[in-house]
Design goal:
Blueprint lengths: L12 H34 L16 H29 L10 E6 L2 E6 L4 E4 L1 E5 L4 E7 L4 E4 L6 E4 L5 E5 L5 E7 L11 E7 L1 H12 L8 H12 L29 E2 L4 E2 L2 H9 L1 H4 L12 H11 L4
Parallel strand pairs: 1-5, 4-10
Antiparallel strand pairs: 1-2, 2-3, 5-8, 6-7, 6-9, 9-10, 11-12
The structure holds dinuclear copper ion (CUA).
Length: 311
């Protein structure tokens, strides 16, 4: 799936403000560049040495010029300062003690997405209601990561031992792709995330579905998969609500089949790709925390069948 990540199509008030400031500063820089280049070229041509000419007149100190080149940059910096503060007000508003809608925790190399009020956990995909600002509490479980969804605005670091707060908002429904923007180890490049902005009705339905406990599988192979999930090492790292699996070293899998990607964006979530991932996660995303278990083909198809029921 190709998704536009360009910063030149902002989709939130914050991203629009940042792009506007960027445009203004680029224009200022271009003007200064043109003026400096123009004056330099003029001087080089107008005052070049001519044959037979001696040493030119030397000028020491020029009060009016010195006032000009002190006042002009100071005024420009003040203007830039005012524009920057105005942008900051939009991009980084005061939270005023509002509780975060979701807690986002960076892990090597995936994102844990916790909705404390709704009472569920998912991974690598954030759903938000369109047009409504949502507060995110940003955490890290290990090293410094950085949240960045270019079309939705600013970046923010996820720092171990510290909570940062970010206001996320999207103007239009859609899928907005983001990535970790702070080098955090081997699979930093595959620490992607998606923000899925939905209409309030769709968002409420999604929350309800995620909060529900998935019904146990009915089909034989999937039932076998559910059993093997608990017997194999899967339960040591993953949680599936409504079962004995309660660990949280790896992503919560309660509704894994409802997600768009696997391995924090490295694969689209399809049956073939899930099989590929479980066959050898280290071949798909080398260095990630999920070991290569060399599952038997019976276990493999049973686990895939089971996980695919977790909608
Ligand atoms: Cu996490 Cu780069």
């Amino acid at each position: 799936m190709s998704i536009d990540t360009s910063i030149f199509g902002p989709a939130s008030p914050g991203a629009e403000a940042i792009l506007r400031l960027f445009g203004t500063l680029t224009l200022f820089s271009a003007l200064i560049f043109a003026i400096v280049l123009g004056v330099t070229l003029y001087s080089v041509i107008r005052f070049r040495a001519k044959p037979g000419q001696g040493e030119p007149r030397q000028v020491f100190g020029h009060t009016r010029l010195e006032i000009l080149w002190t006042v002009a940059p100071t005024a420009l910096i003040l203007v830039i300062g005012v524009l920057s503060f105005n942008t900051l007000r939009v991009v980084d508003p005061a939270r005023d003690g509002q509780p975060p809608e979701l807690i986002l925790t960076g892990h090597q190399w995936w994102w844990e997405v916790r909705y404390p009020q709704a009472g569920f956990v998912t991974a690598n995909e954030i759903h938000i209601p369109v047009g409504q600002p949502v507060w995110i509490q940003l955490e890290s479980a290990d090293v410094i990561h950085d949240f960045w969804v270019p079309k939705l605005g600013r970046k923010m670091d996820a720092v171990p031992g510290r909570s940062n707060y970010l206001r996320l908002e999207a103007d239009a429904p859609g899928v907005y792709v983001g990535a970790c923007a702070e080098f955090c180890g081997m699979q930093h490049a595959w620490m992607r995330l998606r923000v899925i902005a939905q209409t309030p009705g769709e968002y409420a339905a999604w929350q309800q579905a995620q909060a529900a406990i998935p019904p146990p599988p009915t089909e034989t192979v999937a039932l076998q998969g559910a059993k093997r999930f608990q017997e194999l090492t899967c339960v040591n790292c993953h949680a599936i609500r409504g079962t004995g699996a309660q660990a949280n070293a790896g992503p919560d899998l309660t509704h894994i089949a409802s997600r768009q990607t696997l391995g924090a964006g490295v694969l689209d979530n399809t049956t073939a790709n899930l099989t590929k991932w479980l066959t050898n996660p280290q071949a798909v995303k080398p260095g990630n925390q999920m070991p290569h278990f060399s599952l038997s083909s019976t276990d493999l198809s049973a686990l895939v069948a089971y996980l695919e029921t977790l909608r």
